[in-house]
Amino acid sequence: MMRLRNISGSRDVIANSPYVVKEAQQYRGNWADVFGNTNPVYVEVGMGKGQFLHTLASLHPECNYVGIEKYSSVLLRAIQKLEADELSNIRLLRMEAEEIVSVFGKGEAAGIYLNFSDPWPKDRHAKRRLPSAEFLARYDEIVADGGKIEFKTDNRALFDFAVEELARSAWKAEVITYDLHADEKLMQGNVMTEYEEKFSAAGSRICKYVLVRR
Ligand code: SAM
After folding, report:
1. Could you report the per-residue pLDDT of 52-89, keeping only the tens digit for each?
2. Is 118 one of the annotated active-site residues of the chain?
3. CA distances from 5 to 11, 18, 35, 161 (A)
4. For a substitution probing ligand 1, which of 92, 102, 118 has the most ligand atoms within 8 Å of its CB?
5. Strand ranges across the sheet with 109-115
6. Nearest of 164, 213, 205 to residue 186 by alpha carbon
């Protein structure tokens, strides 16, 4: 009973939230209409409860931010946190990231953020990993010239996989670190994600790369 009520509650909140873009395919090529300006649009794929994007959007009113999350229950938490502020430069999408090219046109994203993506440890699920070559090809379609992909994770196996995948992609690493929090220079301006706070507090090292096109 409780559970049912929660589910219908989250559907209503999502349906009524001005932060959530519905049927986003209709805005493909027209994100300037969504935001009412032509500021650069950065996308976080798998944003979770949105802490990282929320902080970035507060720090950078001159940029726009779109968060993609597949689960309504998680999206709900992101909406609730946003409702305390009034940010005009952030929007959320409830969707599977596999469909990202149906929502953003060629070069429409200024950059992509991947933070603590699900590991999908089984080999047969490798294509579902957000930094896989299949996903890197999707990002290649939608990221503008000069745009970057930034990925952080505590999962060394996933990170090693992500680095190997670059060989069959349009991207190369401009920066790679296996211990972000020990690198004073890279830590300048680092915005912590929820998972990053949790894992770094527990003593895990955080890996990060920044990709540019070859
Ligand atoms: N980025 C946040 C952070 O660093 O704190 C959340 C990390 S959490 C481990 C990964 C999130 O990505 C989950 O909320 C999950 O539902 C979402 N996610 C994973 N794969 C996805 C996909 N293919 N499409 C959309 N969301 C996805």
Report:
1. 999 999 999 999 999 999 999 999 999 999 988 889 99
2. yes
3. 10, 22, 32, 40
4. 118
5. 90-94, 64-69, 41-45, 109-115, 143-153, 207-213, 171-177
6. 205
